[in-house]
Queue: 2 jobs
Job 1
Amino acid sequence: MVVAESKPVTEILEMIKEFKKVVVAGCKGCVTVCNSGGEKEVGILASELRLARKVAGNDLEVVEYTCERQCDPEYIEPLDDLVKDADAVVSIACSVGPQYIAARYPFLPVFPGLNTVFIGGAAEHGVWKEYCQACGQCIIGDFGGLCPVARCAKSLMNGPCGGSSGGKCEVGKGTIDCIWHLIYERLKNLGQLSKLENPWGFKNWSTSRDGGPRTMIREELRK
Amino acid sequence: MTLTAGSKLEKILKSGQKAVTCECGPPRGADAEHFRHKASYLKECADAVNVTDNQTAVVRFCSLAACRILMDMGIEPVMQMVTRDMNRIALQSNVLGAAALGIKNLLCLTGDHNSFGDHPQAKNVHDLDSVQLLAAVKGMRDDGKMISGTEVVGRPQMFLGAAVNPFADPFEFRVVRMAKKIKAGAQFVQTQCIYDMERFAKFMQMANDMGLTEQCYVLAGVTPFKSVGMANYMKKFVPGMLVPDSYIQRLKGVPKEKQAEEGIKIAVEQIQQLLEIKGVAGIHLMAIEWEEKAPEILKAAGLLPRPKVD
Ligand code: SF4
Ligand code: SF4
């Protein structure tokens, strides 16, 4: 899923300081799963904003709404009524959300309430880790099913660098696993260490962001 | 003796004599005089001098310019190139430019991660890794083709090197990785500074058993300790470096003002031990900001004067 975290409330307050009425829009997708942008967080953020502005002697009206998904045009339609007399929207979906809202309402200021961090998964309760950089041409089949593009600090394709120590990456002061150590151990378990003997060729990054913003088309669904 | 690039380093290694390379890092500014001064100590004692490429991810003047300065001083450079900061377009371009300037030794590295340097906010590149850079340059040199398949008109004649770190993990993979670098094009390798002799000897035995030392020259890395503080720092903070406590105890055992001298003694002993190990083809001395001590160390180790080759 897309993992996102809340921006500090002070940063959001600064963004909306000139407005009297804002809509805080959440999303029931990934950000609900990672506890940063669902119905509950919409409620919390709305109260925080109201309270802070009340304390500042400059009351703010906040409308709360949580979309089914903000990355789908049909699901942001219900905002049409809510934004009519609002000054701005704060979206706490992943950063696709505010961009969809901005595209729908050309004259309405829209602000992100979250920082979209990565594509990842939950490691334990309250801890998420990055797993993929959406390079557009998945190569993990060559590496025991583990991703060296996203999970090696240097995106190495040919084995652990000279900084790998005790299974940990040279980056992160011992908090990050060296994915190449894990790849090595896994291929050893699978009896496939020979896979690491030959130089792995040049990766094609044109399917990644390096080829420009990407579009995916499924013709059979368009009809 | 068939030569790929005909550099002095290549000739000495191929003649079977022990080679000596030293390292000289360009400064964090445009002060060429400072660099010339450091390099002048190395002129008579190294067969070739490595110029680091923004080492530890700290901005310094570029290795290509520094190599040119060395050549003007009559010193043969080994140009280091890291893949952290440049994509395949810039890397290949710099290789061609370096070859055009007459640089004949190239060391292909991935480089330290940018988070360690003076610009941790930088966007890093990592389009290629060190193994892929080796393969790219070998392809340009031997097949006359760039990565894209574009023909190279005027092939870069480079004697290709790589780094190996026998002290990083997983240990058993380190020789495999060296073999991989050789397959990709490495003709010589320089090792991370060696303090743990036992582990290095084990590594070399594996390399010998796999026949790697017959395909590639191994230059053993040596960095003299200036003080017990430096030894402790390397032990604790430099990733992938193993410093045995015995050295730390030994440095602690002498008065502060004698520690540097003791550090030099240790380095000389290390060099002598390393040269005894089967498969070691020479020494790579990295006297970080202590270049003026290189002649003393190498002389005491019996490596001076350097042989002449033509
Ligand atoms: S190889 Fe690419 S697509 Fe596959 S997990 Fe890694 S970044 Fe994602
Ligand atoms: S230590 Fe491992 S994960 Fe970290 S950069 Fe090196 S190879 Fe990649």
Note: The beta strands of chain A are 2-6, 21-27, 61-67, 88-91, 110-112, 114-124, 127-132.
Job 2
Amino acid sequence: MKKRTIKNIKIDVDKCNGCRACEVICSAFHAVPKYSSNNPARSRIRVIHDPLRDIYVPVYAGEYTVAECAGRDKYVIDGKEYDECAFCRAACPSREEFKEPDSGLPLKCDMCEGEEEPLCVKWCLVDALTYEEREEEVEVEEEEAPDEIEIGLETLINKHGLDKILDTVEQLAKDKG
Amino acid sequence: MRYAETGINLEIDLSRGNIEKVATDPKETELYLGGLGTNTKLLWDRVPPEVDAFSPDNLLIFGAGLLCGTPATGCNRTIVSTISPQTGLMAFSMMGGFWAPELKYAGYDKIVLRGKSPDLVYLWIHNDKVEIRDASHLRGKGAIETAEIIKRELNEPRAQVAAIGLAGENRVYYASIEQGRSSASRGGIGAVMGDKGVKAIAVRGTKDISVARPEEFLALCNEVLEYIKYREEHPIPGVMPILAGLGSPQEMKIHDEKWHTENFMWGNSRTRRKGFWTEEIEKEWTETMEKARTRLISCFNCPMKCGATISMPGLPTYMMKCFTKLTYTMAAYSDLDFGLRIAQKATEYGLDGFSAPQVMAFALELLENGILSKDDFPGMPEDNEGRFFYLLDMIVHRKGIGDTLAKGTYWAAKEIGNGAEDYAHNTIKKHEQLPLKLSMLNPIYFLMYSTGEKINITQIEGQFPQAPFPSREAREEFVKDWIQVPDEKFKQYFLDWEPRGENSIPYYPTVQMTCEIVDWQERMHYIDDALGQCAGLSSFPLKPPYHIHNYPKFISAGAGIAMDEEKLTEAAKRYRTLVRAINIRRGMRRKDEKPPENHWKHRFPELEKELLDTYYKFKGWNEEGIPTKETLESLGLDYVAREFLERGILSDDETAATDENREAVTETANQ
């Protein structure tokens, strides 16, 4: 049996007051040495902020994508059009967000490893950000084995067709039985 | 390496279009801290008293507080300093929001503007790149509208924009600078910005701000956040709701306006409406506010939610905080719906929400009393609310009588004559104040109003309760965890303060105690104004998270300046005295240091004289309110002493100015 921890920051945009304390503490935590400097442009969370249209969306950085995505849909919120990009969690070649401002290297949220909870959550006194952690127990062999067989079988089916595989399995079962 | 600050000021000569980045002296920071402190030093050094508000030689300084841009919670204020067109004295208005930290991240502590641009321009500051850009297409645009247009044309939604509206462009003496949810309103600094031909300053920064001792600094920030949470759960019992918690008065959140509407005066500080707040009104106003308010919002790095987004049907969205919610309503004897509608327009015009409504009510009072006639208001609508919208436009466009009213009640009354001056009865040092007319003289407030260099009777108060608590038990309970006191004696002063009897106002707190209380409250405000800390988490509310005992630690760990309570107190006293020195050099004297004549009904001339005499002495000022040579030298302000002697403001052999000198000074000031 193996335990796996799922970490998540739940975002409630209705509660966000737009103060950007999350950006402040994130950039301070990740400074070297720790807390030695502050610069929200280096933060791994940012608040998309358009007060006159009541848009307050904290977004934290996800995986880096090496290529631009195909989807660039438009979203209309309260009459204003937003590019899908604006709310994306990934750093990618086509956008500046979640990259170190000077080196251009991508940034990713690490849930403030070593802390009890991500510090953006701790500093969000209005509770727009809450930390969720759940532990999942996984039985390594039982769960992983079928996956492997499944993948293997699927490859075989793709190659020889389902009927042929079923016939073969039947044949083998008879032989062994 | 400089900590907390960048060590660079941006100097812009608008007449020549010259931009310079100037390294500042760290020694100055140690002496004057930053923000208001170093702004004041620049004004003293470079704006002599002969320079008036609308001279190209007047400076307009946008200073970020010393700790802005660090993680210090609620530290986000821009301190804008200049010479006020209305008072002729130094103005230092402040705004919260997001602008000051952004300036720090761009790499600058201050923007110092001098000269005048021949054409309307805006400034675009993006890290090292600084541009003066044409703003002719923004002429006449609203302040919020301008910010939106600029962000769009720069394609920089994250730029922070401080802008003026038409009031600033047309040099209305009480024009503000607006920045998102906040504004620097008092003293007419928006008029100076307009006079300099600057429509807006947009800034975007992506650089680091460092602190000297990181772990220690963060621990202090976490303590403040913990305390904010604690106070949220433990509001102060027995005081009105707006004083029970933290933050700037939570006007956007609370619906119970009984206290404001019944204790403050309506019109131009004219009538108190006891019994106004009925269930019906409460229901109606609550509905108006609930419908208008989209969200409660905060300034940079602050959880307090003092502001709100307001959307009135059919009008563009704007943001508001604090008492402007009621100023237009009460000036016009109208309702909240009207107040929120006209405030939308006034915010776009960029007007001080305290002065503007009073000036409009003043004009209508003059009309009602035959001092102005119908001919002075051509085309004015008949209905009450229509008249206010009409006046707003006349003032901002400076049309007809609006041109006179644009100077505020003091100057307008002088120009109008014919007895108008009797109606301009709510100014201190020529500047309109909150409409309060009270009964019994309050010695603490008497001194704060008289001697406050901010020339604004709100947010100069703070850490000492505004009134005695009714029972000894309640007072004992209050002092139990009163950690903010600089000295234990203040607890005793408060414990012995009774609502009635021997130990009640006006003779208690005693004159000496009053001086000490005022000095403490003032000290905290001046520290905030140098650090860029919002008063809402410090000098303004009772039992705040920032106080004299943890501030030195913040400065030491943040800015790397060795600091203790004594040194901090002295620094605050130094630049506080320098603000006064600027005003003294511009002719301010004891005769100017008084609250509105009818502010209190019951007055005590002898006590008032004693209060002023004792406070002047306590502060080391002579009987004219001029800091003495000894005081100045003890604070390292020898250069001020020298100039005072040269100008005959002080004389060589004595500390008090003679009558002869005083006359000479008055003459100089009048020239």
Note: Chain B has three domains: 8-204, 237-432, 438-655.
